[in-house]
Amino acid sequence: YARYSKFVVRGVLRNGDLLNSANVICSLSFDRDEEYFAAAGVSKKVKIFEFQSLMNGMVDIHYPVIEMSSRSKLSCVCWNSYIKNYLASTDYDGVVQ
Q1: Dist CA 40 CA 24 (whole Å)
Q2: Which regions form coiled coils (predicted)?
Q3: Which residues on neighbouring strands pair with residue 46, listed in sequence order?
Q4: What pTM did the predictor assign?
Q5: What does the H/E/C string look like for the chain?
């Protein structure tokens, strides 16, 4: 059973283009040191964000540090917990990158 019984909103990620409302995030993963997190989904992009800038809540729209494109919608993203700069993603076509 879970240690916590409810969620508390600490920050809001308004992700994506203002003209494109179909921008669902399917997966989220933190890097080893929890400085960055990767978000991926139907936008066909993996977007890396700084975690502390989201937690500060000073701005309404957060821009990614970097974006990586894929040919298909992304289903999962996972950061290597031992090697900080290794990130894997899978897409709806079954490709692992």
Answers
A1: 8
A2: none
A3: 40, 68
A4: 0.81
A5: CCCCCCCCCCCCCCCCCCCCCCCCEEEEEECCCCCEEEEEECCCEEEEEEHHHHHHCCCCCCCCCEEEECCCCEEEEEECCCCCCCEEEEECCCCEC
